Amino acid sequence: MQDTNQIREWVYSKRKNIIRDIGRIVNICSVSDIEELQEMQSPFGEGCRFVLDEMLAIGKDLGFQTENYNYYCGRIYYEKRKSIENSITIWGHLDVVPAGDDWEYEPYEMTVEGDYLIGRGVQDNKGPTIGALYALLYLKEAGIPMNTPVSLMVGCSEETGMQDIDYYIKNYKQPAFSIVADCGFPVCYGENGIINIELQTRLGNKDILAFHAGSTSNSIPETATIILKKSCITAQKKEHLKASKLLLIEEERNQIKLTAKGKSAHVCMVHDSKNAIGILVKELLRLDLLPEEEKALKGVELLSKDAYGIAANLWDRNYSLGQLTGGATMIRYENSVLTVSVDYRYPILTNGIISDGKELLDSLKVLSREAGFTCIVRKHLPPSYIPANKPLIQELTKVYQEVSGLANPPYTMGGTTYTRKLKNAIGYGMALPDKQILRRKQGHGDFHQPDESLHIGELMEGIVIYIKALLKLNDLEISDLLLN
User: Which of 84, 163, 414, 432 is the most core-located residue (most Cβ within 10 A)?
Assistant: First the structure.
């Protein structure tokens, strides 16, 4: 097998080019638009069409061949391929979550600051996707004959429902083995179940002019805002309101705007989060500003008071292999209808068997009904799980440990990736455990947060691990790649 130090030297020699190519795609706003899903040229909007064109152009610039699957996804490869079902594919995605507010840097003009890249998507998932491409470039430039062809597949709607991979699976054959470069090292062998619901109720209060929070259903919101008519607030309540240390108060003519600030985080990584919805609703209830809407607001408070379902009595003591995380993530108010998006990630096992999420969903429906909401299930994905003792999982974990010098074992997570859609697939990097991020402010610097950042050196090491892993896989027979 190739010497690790020589591989590392090659990777670092490409540092400037890697940064350049990440910038080429980060500088394109590629939020997937599924509300106006169109066929062929722009199924997920122009931004995703442009970014896929640019990614495939980068592949061609590096001497690869490419295929465009009607702008749902694209493939980059360099060998004359055998049948796809006898190949290995690395998967990444080019779509991003909306930038949101409170950035100190330009989200779609990538910044290089010291050892960090900053911009929407540098970490999730454009940086790792370019990293995977350069792992393939090493194999190509080194002239290593691959017993099993390897290619890179890039999708355009991972953040909004994975319609890209659904389209691919429906119309094309799957590879023998898939590696998803959209998590952390070493091997992710399981993903929590996902329940995403939408609660709706009609409010009779005409004093509410606006009510909104969050920009994506899978992130704890950093800000929540309500605009009320001044006339609904008595002089006494106004004095109490001004004494609040949790709300930003802005008055303009006949209205008053109340804003709560929290700390954003992905719903699967909530340990440092503060839900702005919970802060705002708690103050609305404490100050008795909307007494006629108390029942609905109390329901929303239960779903946003903590990120573990404790206040809402959703936690199941029989859960294992993961923890329940999530809560209310978005609020919209239009034509007197209040809509609340709720996203929970539930553990893989209950009483030692794979969870089905039924009890959690039933509890959410009861809570919704008692608070006066109708409940619409937008998404329910069961957990994905492969036993960690599989030889291939152990082999890839060993590669990571030998290159990094770290002893982390395989793990499970609350996030969701293409892994759960694909047969015979694992998550594998490219983030290192205890990754370094550029955190100028609390709630900034990580993926899905303002000022999303990526440590350049850690990405370089991730590419080294990938190259070593691909070389290891090249020593195996197709039959050795089967996990089930």
Answer: 414
